[in-house]
Design goal:
Radius of gyration: 19 Å
Strand order of the largest sheet: 2-1-6-5-4-3
Helix content: 10-25%
Distance between the termini: 58 Å
Number of domains: 1
Number of helices: 3
CATH topology: Nuclear Transport Factor 2, Chain: A
Strand content: 35-45%
Oligomer: single chain
Order of helices and strands: HHEEHEEEE
Length: 171
């Protein structure tokens, strides 16, 4: 037992190591995408991965090679900056379910920008002692007027019956 009262056994220690490895993959994805290092990015996924960014078939991929090919569309941006937060990792019998929030800024060659706020919903599996992303689905929480790609929309719960919005907004 540590001074903090936490008991570290082999299973607890492995869980901490796995969480860090998964978090590192999420960060590496953002780094590789911003640099457009598609071989590095695709190596983070299983060979037979399923990726769904939106209803348009051009935003869906089966397999890491197809993902890399699909993400060539990102060359249309002069620069991008992807940031993750609010990472939640839940282990199950055959891997991990991972949710993370993404804030992605994009700049076109003409200097105009587009920003999207969303979530990655991933299934990670362990392959040959390495964690990899087997499934990824992106949902969009919101975007600015410059972002026009049809990303899957986040579905929110409706307000309760009879709810009336308070008048908080100026105007």
């Amino acid at each position: 037992m540590s001074d903090s009262g936490i008991i570290l056994n082999d299973k607890a220690l492995q869980s901490l190591i796995d969480r860090q490895e998964i978090s590192d993959i999420l960060t590496d994805y953002c780094y590789a995408l911003d640099r457009m290092d598609l071989p590095r990015l695709s190596a983070l996924f299983t060979r037979d991965c399923l990726v769904d960014f939106g209803p348009d078939e051009r935003l869906q991929s089966v397999g890491s090679a197809a993902l890399a090919k699909s993400l060539e569309r990102m060359w249309r941006w002069a620069r991008t900056s992807h940031h993750l937060s609010n990472v939640q990792i839940q282990f199950d019998h055959d891997g991990a379910l991972v949710k993370s929030y993404v804030h992605a800024w994009h700049e076109r060659a003409d200097g105009s920008t587009a920003t999207v706020l969303g979530q990655y919903r991933d299934r990670f599996v362990r392959e040959k002692s390495r964690w990899r992303i087997a499934e990824r689905r992106m949902v969009m929480n919101g975007c600015d007027a410059g972002f026009t790609v049809n990303i899957n929309r986040l579905e929110r719960h409706p307000p309760p019956d009879g709810w009336i919005a308070p008048k908080l907004d100026a105007g």
